[in-house]
Amino acid sequence: MPLSRTSRLKACFHGLSRGSRNQTRTLHRNTLTTFWTPTQSKKKSSTGDGVHEDGHDLLVRAGFLRQAQPGIFHTLPLGLRVLNKVETLIDKHMQSLGASKLALSSLSSQHLWEKSGRLDGRNSELFHLTDRKGAKHLLAPTHEEEITNIVKHAVHSYKHLPLRLYQVSRKYRDEARPRQGLLRGREFVMKDLYTFDLTEEHAMETYNAVQKAYKAFFDDLNLPYLVATADSGNMGGNHSHEYHFASQRGEDTIIKCSACSMSVNEELYVGKHDATPETPAGKHDVAVWAGPILRKLEKKLTQPQSEQEGDHVDSVLKVYYPQDCELNLHAIKRLHPNLETSNADPQKWLDAHQEHCIHLRDPRISESQCYLPHVNQSGSEPLRVTGAPFLLTKARESDTCPDCGARALHLHQAIEIGHTFHLGSRYSEPLEATIKDASNEPIAIEMGCHGVGVSRLVGAVATMLADAKGLNWPIVIAPFSMVLVGTGSNSADEVVELYDHVMHHVRNISGNMDFDAVIDDRERPLGWKLNDADLIGYPFIVILGKAWKDRKAVELQSRRLGVKEEVGVEDLAQRIISYSQKL
């Protein structure tokens, strides 16, 4: 007599589970009775409604983090699993570059920072320490000086290059205003890759290889990201790129052209103005901004203390620009690097320094407009107005691309999660890290440094993917790929057999898929367990409900994909593998 479909499914399940039990006797099974997940209930507002939660709020409520102090967080077991998976993914791509992993001390020598020229009195974000013997140290926000010093004493010949070293470690920055949880903290986890090459040509080849590895790393996360040309800032060097997740909570603005490959951080954006009969200068109402240009005074022994080293106002810059646009202070500082932009009281500077006023106009403003009485209410009539060689205002949506000329610019608020820098000899020269080339001549090593904000990435992913129900994770960094949720009518053995079956067949069918699962064996109602699972953000939820009892089928859920379907045991592993490609 032929077997019914239910009987075939039962036979299939029990046969497979016996086979998988034989092969997974030493398998460690994760269970939520033994894995600590201190989730919390959602807070109510004064009106009784749920309080709006962002990604960071959910990381705390879902038991990934707890705040110790402003900008400092304890990582709990779920959060540690995510961080460890990000680090494992980093290891994979750093190994593809032939990089060796190390761990540098969190205490950095202040002397090395002084020697490199980065300790210039303006580093207010550094944590300073003095030991009992008076030696001065820093809690390292980055390790360029230390790694350069190590290589200086260990590498002496061009035959030992190229060299690629990386670490994943905690870093420290005394943020004046920590905010947005892991996105702007005082303690954070970073991946830093340091590269050492013989020539600039070799260093650029390394840089391109690193960029390729970075793109492969971000591709593995299966999330959209932006790559933009960036300012190197106080890191030094003249070639760098940033890697971003687009998010309305981001503090950066990326300007990208949809018609060509132009993609740049707003800090580097410079707009062009090609005057035509349709767009002549003088068609805009004029706005005026003013700010001081500072002059650095060097310390002299004959000067009184009050006049010694510091910044002093040398002159005032007065800028004329279109009133319907927002001023781009980064563009102006390209022309006047010593411009102080933090003061918001232009009239104060104009009144005090009228005799030392420099006049600069946006190319869309005609020179004659700068002389109009209502424009020069301060009485500081310009003797000479310099026309800027580029626009002095920020880009706007659908503006003209300065590279290809198409009206196809798009602005994206974004969270920076990685940065690659070509440093050149910025650190090797002052720290005297030289090697002998083939002619036995000493030359400074060409360096690069390349970072990924590991904890920042976790916060950014939480911010990007969170919804009203909770967190969501890319499967490659999720704390667990799947949670199995049984009901009171399921025996513990049934849930364990299904766990072993899924784990065995997903790994066998997929070949190299990194897949893990956890059993929710807590004595709680089914509805509570499902809400908890949604809050934590497992990519897959498998429920052993009524269909399991009737016909050995489960309900498979994936909130990110909008999946909620009944699946037979014999199809479950293949269905999970298929959906995983989209997660």
What does this structure look like?
- The protein is of the alpha+beta class.
- It folds into three domains: 5-49 and 479-580, Rossmann fold (3-Layer(aba) Sandwich), CATH 3.40.50; 78-105 and 141-265 and 410-461, Bira Bifunctional Protein, Domain 2 (BirA Bifunctional Protein, domain 2, 2-Layer Sandwich), CATH 3.30.930.10; 286-387, no CATH class.
- The chain is built from 13 helices and 26 strands.
- It has helices spanning 5-23, 55-61, 77-95, 110-116, 144-154, 200-220, 329-335, 346-352, 454-465, 492-510, 526-536, 546-551, 569-580; strands at 30-31, 65-69, 72-75, 100-101, 107-109, 127-130, 136-139, 163-172, 187-197, 226-229, 239-246, 252-257, 263-265, 286-297, 310-322, 357-361, 385-387, 409-424, 434-436, 442-444, 446-453, 482-486, 517-520, 540-544, 553-558, 563-568.
- Strands 4, 8, 9, 10, 11, 12, 13, 18 and 21 form a nine-stranded mixed β-sheet that branches. Strands 1-23-22-24-25-26 form a six-stranded mixed β-sheet, with helices on both faces. Strands 14-15-16-17 form a four-stranded mixed β-sheet, covered by helices on one side.
- Strand 6 (127-130) and strand 7 (136-139) form a beta hairpin.
- The chain starts with a helix and ends with a helix.
- Mean pLDDT is 87; it is low at 1-13, 15-25 and 299-310.
